[in-house]
Amino acid sequence: MTTVNTPPAVDVDADSSASASASAEKAAASPWRRRGSSWLVKGNLLIVFVVIVVIASLLSPDFLTVRNLSNLLQQSSLTGIIAIGMTLVILTSGIDLSVGSTAALSGMIVAITLDGSVPIPLAILLALVVGLAVGLVMGAIAAWIRLPAFIVTLAGLTAIRGAAYLTTDGRPVGQNLPESFTLIGGGYMGFIPITGLIFIVVALLAAALLRFTTFGEYIYAVGSNEEAARLSGVPVKWVQMAVFGISGLTAALAGILLTSRLTIAQPTSFTGAELDGIAAVVLGGAALAGGRGGIGGTFIAVLLLSVLKNLFNLMGIGSFFQMVATGLILLLALILNKFIDSRARNIS
Amino acid sequence: MSTTLLQPDTSAGAGVLRLRMSGINKSFPGTHACRDTRLEVRPGEVHCLLGENGAGKSTLMKILSGSYQPDSGVIAIDGVDVSFANPLDGIAAGIAVIYQELDLFPDLTVAQNLYLGHSPSVGGIVRGRRRRADAREILKRVGATFSPDAIVGLLPIADQQLTAIARALTADARLIVMDEPTATLGDADVEKVHTVIRSLVAEGRSVVYISHRLDEVKEIGDRITVLRDGANVAEHRVADSTPDEWIADMIGEKKKELTAVTDRPAPTGEPLLEIERVTIKGVIDISDVSVRPGEIVGLAGLGGAGRTTFLSAVFGARRSSSSLRLAGKPLTIRSVRDATAAGFGLVPESRKTEGLMLGLSIGRNASISSIGAPPWLMPHRRGRALSTPVLAGLGVKYASVNQAVGQLSGGNQQKVVLAKWLTRGIRVLLLDEPTRGLDIGAKADLYRQVRALADNGAAVLVASSELSELVANADRIIVLHEGRKVGEFDPRLASEESITHAIISGKIS
């Protein structure tokens, strides 16, 4: 081994630079192809989206109307907001099953407080804080007690839904919501629904968080390799707790907006919303194992799923068939992604 | 279960060996792990296999079990030539290997573990009562007092060890290989295992025993085969030889002259890092390790001597009770965050699972430890500005910092781990087997970078299982043995032989 004396050191040197340049060559060849293929993975979703939009506009002259498109954005936005929070959780290799229940609870809280004549900003703030707190508590349990997030948030799903029922003993609430509050969920700026704008703003904020802050960088690091992140001095547990807090916050926002749009709050709302959110995140290209994915993918996937539903409706397809078809399309898209992705890995 | 007793020497005829391996050769890229290696084990004996780290013991045993196929050579069991394509063939031929990391199923019961894969059953339905009764009988034979219904993972380590031995008996193994079965046991439990081994060989079974504890070999062994660099160097009868002879064989004709490569003077002055004592109960208890600024201190020891645990504990990655001083001031490290805040950096043993985030880019890996300062914005731009000159200084070869780090060669990957800490700026660098899997050029290159870092005033602690590497690069070598510090050597003054002696025996000659 390296009983390197002065003369052989020259040899060793030559050796190392030779091997190093060989590996550099290999390295130089691959990223180009890799970039190409990763573009394909991302582009893949965009292409599917465009194709479906084209098909929809051909099949139904109503599709490309301003009214339909603005409806579409309105329908996407609540699931979309939930999916944005979910993206951050999944990027750390976590999962949040409690978002639907949290949204329902916050929707109830905002309605109850508004019925009690609490000022609108305060009522909204309170509902948001509850969502944030619920998320932080679950995140803290998952991170410090080292329980799987799946189990913690499954317990949260049941318990928080129960809490939502308890607020009114199961009755809908919010018969006299102030009009300025209901305007948020039902109003338009020009022809753009306000909830759609909020969805876009939330998506942009989350994208900026991931790209332009240290916290965002830590999210990817934790999801990519938790142990390496820990040994690099990343505050792993705090990051894990924080993403669940954000997920609770976005869920609460969705809940508030639904109450506002429907001008009434129901404890049964958002049942199954966690699955829609997860579906959108995964379809958007994020790996459930963490470390890979982004807001852009989730954003397009949310729109894609809405367009699909819209298309089915315009074609007059029944909702039972819609469910089957949506499930199958989701599966097909993921198989295609996996196929392209594994090819990309083989190349590199 | 058939529990045929194998009569020593009679049935197969006296003089027929239980195991004869001869002319075994096995190469891996870069190393020749076995060179014409020979191993002969008689029925009813405990045969000990001795050698330093990397002497070829593990490879030989993996060939015996069927995990590896030899490039050439002959294996005969009870006089019959055999060839194993996989470990199942080895088990069928009556060979059981009990690895140091027990391959038991911790969540299953003892009985389930013993009969996994061959449970007594009728039409696919397990006969649980029968299995339990059989298991109880086998457990009695190994002197176990726990129930066959006990969950293996909840048993103490010694009882898990007995379970593994009992499992070898359920397959009626004639030859049982034990790889350091007592490394993690206390004295009373060691005696338990020895008793079982004695009863096994009394039944005519043979045991191949690998242990670094020579006093244990003395007590339990019948004969010894010593390997060095993959080749046979000696065979002894335990009764007719002494541990000192065995050590001499293991060490071999090491250079007795001074081994230090460098003639640079050792750094002097006040230590930067003083580790007064680090303890993890039952695992390590290491005192008085100090490193001066500009000094590279090597940590030598056998596998399991506690090098990795020690570095993890100092770095706050493993809970321990420790008292440290940094630049004369007491320092408390309870977590990795405490350690990094104090200017410590660790290059961990496994760069792929602990050192790097393989899916992320070079730039992101190199800057992950440096972006934690306010205002917590623009981590990419800031990280790239900080890490690019460091990566260039280390001579990392890459096409783009946006390339996934997993695409780099091992040597370049290791430099990225190093870059992570250099980008942050450190005072104390801990390296754990930093050159594992690197070619010679990359090794030399890595040490050159570490030396440059030391020359800038850092204190460096490096653990390695290759003594020659430490001798060539360290200013001082500390030897650990079974979780304790044995002593210190100056490679300018001590011979490699004397250091190796301390590594193996745990004593300073």
TrEMBL record, chain A:
It holds the Pfam family BPD_transp_2. It is found in: Cell membrane. One of its GO terms (cellular component) is plasma membrane. Keywords: Cell membrane, Membrane, Transmembrane, Transmembrane helix. InterPro entries: ABC_transp_permease. The chain crosses the membrane at residues 39-60, 120-142, 149-168, 188-210, 238-258, 278-308, 320-340. This is Ribonucleotide-diphosphate reductase subunit alpha. It comes from Subtercola boreus. The lineage of its organism: Bacteria, Bacillati, Actinomycetota, Actinomycetes, Micrococcales.
From TrEMBL, chain B:
Gene3D superfamilies: P-loop containing nucleotide triphosphate hydrolases. One of its GO terms (cellular component) is plasma membrane. Residues 19-254, 267-507 form the ABC transporter domain. PROSITE patterns: ABC_TRANSPORTER_1, ABC_TRANSPORTER_2. Pfam families: ABC_tran. Keywords: ATP-binding, Cell membrane, Membrane, Nucleotide-binding, Repeat, Translocase, Transport. It is found in: Cell membrane. It comes from the Bacteria. It is a peripheral membrane protein. GO terms for molecular function: ATP binding; ATP hydrolysis activity. InterPro entries: AAA+_ATPase, ABC_carbohydrate_import_ATPase, ABC_transporter-like_ATP-bd, ABC_transporter-like_CS, P-loop_NTPase. PANTHER family: CARBOHYDRATE TRANSPORT ATP-BINDING PROTEIN MG119-RELATED, GALACTOFURANOSE TRANSPORTER ATP-BINDING PROTEIN YTFR. This is ABC transporter ATP-binding protein.
